[in-house]
Write a structure and sequence with these properties.
This protein has 15 helices and 17 strands. The chain is α+β, with helices and mostly antiparallel strands and about 425 residues long. The protein folds into three domains: about 80 residues, no CATH class; about 160 residues, 3-Layer(aba) Sandwich (Rossmann fold); about 150 residues, Dihydrodipicolinate Reductase, domain 2. Strands 1, 6, 7, 8, 9, 10, 11 and 12 form an eight-stranded mixed sheet that branches. The protein is globular and about 65 Å long. The two termini are about 15 Å apart. Bound molecules: NADP nicotinamide-adenine-dinucleotide phosphate. NADP nicotinamide-adenine-dinucleotide phosphate binds next to helix 2 and helix 15.
Length: about 425
């Protein structure tokens, strides 16, 4: 990451002339900055006098102390109209997997570029793009985003031979791993995450495979190398499940959850209730960009099983593998059954569940169920999803997402990038 000074957002405040001398202030600031996770630096203020910059590592805000040169005393001055320096962080980004999610992420990064810079002090260049068909493309000067969206090969400056030489050439600070999911082994994405984290590269993935097959190992590896392993989009796309528990629900323990977590099967069931054939409904999910690369992973329940395993592993802290879920998909349901159930007001839904007992054992399932009309899950239609959490401190907490598509999923990795920039 390259840090550069751009402009100061705020200068603080009240004159402290009378409180301490400049040398005492230097000692105080140095110690306090260390304890309070601030960094400090010196720079020149608008009148060219030396200032003390105190920079919060999480946010690009600064406190400035300005010594009075004539009496060697410190002062703090509010200079609201003055724009000078602020800490910015530049990230080199690499994308492995350039399908629905990868491409929408590039689009979103382009749309949010100015906002990322102004609100989070975050600038970026994309230095690597890779997929099976594209190969290992590199441009250390940064891919032009529009050209990359049209055809990344025309925006590339060179090609690497494999993952390792690609990471060496592109030198990313953050790797976005958005390749196809393998529910049974998590490979090859799992090895990709290992390689990147071992090199001190943050990893952000929408791919549930590495999460369920390597969460504890990858989290440990990330910690050892001082980087993050984040995967907000892995479950419910851009909706903040993992950061909700991580950031907003401290000391809140998940006991049980029920949900509709697979948008593709929910869309297929809704469309089949409305008369569309199974094949046409699958095609509609594919056109929306929400189906797995291999849609049998959706309809056979494996995508939902991996999501249940991810929630149990990460939020209940009990390692669960997709095979433990023994999922039942929706392919056993005929169109007549689906339509009759809806007509009777008790529609079929692919219900995901996990519960942790007092001994710490977790039971998990993914299965089609006919739901009562007053069940909140029975009203979740199309590509919408809903998760209902029961915790030890909040008895029923619901998170729902409407109209999910690959663009909303791409918000997850973007939010993860911002989370990385704040730490
Ligand atoms: N789409 C969604 O709404 C959504 C929601 C949540 C999570 N996810 C997850 O996000 C990931 C990507 O989904 P997607 O919809 O973008 O899939 P996609 O459109 O099928 O794209 C997959 C991409 O991964 C590449 N890829 C696959 N295997 C690879 C390998 N071994 N090495 C290098 N590249 C490889 C493909 O390359 P080629 O095309 O060159 O073969 C393609 O660029 C999946 O893990 C999925 O489970 C997706």
């Amino acid at each position: 990451m390259k840090r550069s000074y751009a402009h100061i957002v705020r200068w603080f405040s009240i004159s402290l002339d009378s409180l301490c001398s400049w040398p005492a202030l230097v000692i105080f600031v140095t110690k306090w900055a260390k304890v309070a996770h601030f960094s400090h630096d010196t720079t020149f203020g608008p009148d060219r006098r030396l200032c003390f910059l105190i920079v919060c590592r999480q946010r690009p805000e600064v406190l400035v102390r300005r010594p009075e040169s004539h009496d060697n005393r410190g002062s703090v001055t509010t200079l609201t109209a003055y724009r000078t320096e602020n800490l910015m962080t530049h990230y080199r980004l690499a994308l492995l997997g350039f399908g629905n999610v990868g491409r929408n992420l590039v689009r979103l990064l382009g749309e949010k570029r100015a906002e990322l810079e102004a609100s989070f002090g975050l600038t970026f260049t994309i230095t690597g793009i890779a997929s099976r068909r594209l190969g290992w493309l590199v441009n250390t000067e940064g891919f032009d985003l529009d050209t990359a969206l049209a055809d990344p090969r025309t925006a590339a400056a060179g090609n690497a031979d494999d993952l390792e030489s690609w990471l060496t050439a592109a030198q990313p600070d953050v790797l976005f791993e958005n390749s196809s999911m393998n529910p049974h082994t998590g490979q090859p994405a799992l090895d990709t995450c290992r390689s990147a984290l071992s090199r001190g590269i943050h990893v952000v993935t929408a791919n549930k495979g590495p999460v369920v097959h390597g969460y504890h190992e990858l989290r440990q590896l990330a910690a050892e190398h001082g980087v993050r392993f984040l995967f907000e989009a892995a479950v419910m796309g851009g909706a903040p499940i993992f950061s909700l528990f991580r950031e907003a629900l401290p000391a809140c323990n998940l006991k049980r959850f029920r949900g509709i977590l697979n948008s593709t099967t929910n869309l297929i069931l809704t469309e089949m209730e409305n008369g569309l054939s199974y094949a046409a409904a699958v095609k509609k999910a594919q056109d929306l960009g929400i189906a797995e690369t291999d849609p049998s992973f959706d309809v056979d329940g494996w995508d939902a099983a991996v999501k249940v395993a991810a929630i149990a592993t990460v939020l209940m802290d009990v390692p669960v593998k997709p095979a433990d879920v023994k999922p039942v998909g929706i392919t056993g349901l005929s169109q007549e059954q689906i339509q009759a159930a809806r007509a009777a007001g008790r529609p079929y839904k692919l219900v995901c569940q996990a519960a942790k007992d007092d001994a710490g054992r977790v039971s998990v399932s993914v299965t089609p169920q006919q739901l009562e009309p007053n069940d909140p899950l029975s009203n979740v239609n199309g590509s919408d999803s809903l998760a209902i959490f029961e915790t030890d401190t909040l008895y029923r907490l619901q998170l729902s997402e409407g109209g999910a598509d690959a663009y909303t999923t791409a918000y997850g990795p973007l939010a993860d990038l911002i989370a990385i920039s704040k730490h």
